[in-house]
Write a structure and sequence with these properties.
This protein has 382 residues and is an alpha/beta fold. It has two domains: 173 residues, Helix Hairpins (Orthogonal Bundle); 179 residues, Purple Acid Phosphatase, chain A, domain 2, CATH 3.60.21. It is built from six helices and twelve strands. The chain has a five-stranded mixed beta sheet with strand order 5-4-3-11-12, with helices on one face. It has a five-stranded mixed beta sheet with strand order 6-7-8-10-9, with no helix packed on it. The chain has a two-stranded antiparallel ribbon with strand order 1-2. Strand 11 and strand 12 form a beta hairpin. Helix 1 packs antiparallel against helix 3. It is rod-shaped, with a radius of gyration of 42 Å.
Length: 382
């Protein structure tokens, strides 16, 4: 299972859609099968009735023919005067997509008895009438038997398809949904456990570099990593929007997501990351470090930092924070350090596409102090 199914949210949605479609298909096929079974049962009872009528009519016809032979002698010459009847018409009706024949034997245009009154008698006339009735009943029986055959073939096909959905496809899709759901939950737990909290005892004297919104620029990604090495930081926290430039932005300088991937993957042990609105499951497939966590918690010098990209949790829609806690966002491409009353809002700006005249920059957190710098390492005022 794990070798065939990629456990992503998009695959989960597609599999759930396929499961829903399969269940709907099974319901339709089951209803079709029930309708066809009812139709074939009604035809079988009708066939028995028509067969009884044919047997009875044949018996009466042969008795009349026998009496005519006794009274008239050999009636073979008179029988040869009966014209060939080719007034057989076949139309079709549809029952749940199954074409069933409707056989109609129309009366001859000439009509009447084909032989004269002198050379015949009443028993011969009765025999002709009865055999004509048998002919019509035989056409009706042929219609029923052909319909029964077609219905039986359709029922077998429908049953086979319904069983394939019920016993193969639906269990398979259910199993895939379970596998993907469990894999995503486990992945989310791993990412949450890894990212949600760096306790104070683990970050004593830690120097943290914070950057956001690379948007696939190889040029500015390289300068950011040069700054990271120059700063001698212990960890690099990326606040989302790593590879894709986004439909609202112009292409940044040296837009090359593949090169950005090649620069960041070797540093996967030093990176923390939250998901941006431009980050997708496809990005996660090519990056070797987790990028799909919506947020993470940091606790530094007794202050809790809630880090997220900012498209969900932001100053207008803050998470549950205590007074003095820090809300750390990217997304706006504008550096910020604002006291919002109940919490402090901080933003490093954008590495590649800064706005409102701000610098291509990042933040440094060291010993509980925050500093904003451009990519050359110069401190900038906020």
């Amino acid at each position: 299972m794990s070798n065939q199914v990629v456990p992503t949210k998009s695959q989960l949605l597609a599999t759930k859609k396929s499961l829903k479609l399969s269940k709907k298909g099974f319901e339709i096929l089951d209803r079709k099968r029930n309708v066809l079974v009812r139709e074939i049962m009604s035809l079988l009872s009708k066939a028995a009735e028509v067969q009884d009528r044919i047997d009875t009519t044949y018996e009466v016809a042969y008795e009349a023919l026998e009496m005519a032979n006794i009274t008239l002698g050999n009636t073979g010459e008179l029988a040869s005067t009966v014209p060939f009847d080719d007034n057989l018409n076949v139309a079709y009706r549809s029952v749940m997509g199954v074409e069933l024949p409707m056989v109609a034997l129309e009366d001859s245009e000439i009509g009447g008895i084909p032989f004269g009154l002198i050379s015949s008698n009443a028993p011969l006339d009765d025999a002709l009438v009865k055999f004509t009735e048998v002919k019509k009943l035989t056409a009706e029986l042929a219609e029923i038997e052909n319909s029964v055959f077609r219905l039986s073939v359709a029922i077998k096909q429908t049953t086979r398809r319904a069983n394939a959905l019920k016993n193969i496809m639906i269990p398979r899709f259910k199993s895939e949904v379970k596998f993907i759901t469990e894999a995503l939950e486990e992945k989310e737990r791993e990412e949450f456990s890894r990212m949600k909290l760096i306790k104070k005892k683990e970050v004593i004297d830690m120097k943290l570099m914070i950057a956001s919104d690379i948007h696939g620029s190889a040029y500015y990604c390289r300068k950011m990593l040069d700054a990271y090495k120059r700063e001698g930081a212990d960890r690099l926290l990326l606040l989302g929007d790593i590879l894709y430039h986004g439909p609202r932005n112009d292409l940044p300088k040296d837009y090359n997501p593949k090169e950005v991937i090649a620069m960041l993957n070797p540093m996967k042990q030093e990176l923390l990351c939250v998901r941006g609105n431009c980050d997708t499951e496809v990005d996660q497939m090519v990056l070797e470090f987790p990028i799909l966590a919506d947020y993470c918690f940091l606790e530094i010098d007794g202050r809790t930092i809630f880090a997220s990209h900012g498209h969900h949790h932001n100053p207008k829609n803050p998470p549950m924070l205590k007074k003095g806690d820090i809300l750390l966002n990217g997304h706006t491409h504008i550096p910020a350090n604002e006291d919002m009353g109940d919490f402090i809002y901080m933003n490093p700006g954008s590495v590649s596409i800064p706005k409102e005249g701000s610098a291509h920059g990042y933040m440094i957190c060291e010993s509980g102090e925050f500093t904003w710098k451009d990519l050359e390492g110069n401190i900038v005022g906020i």
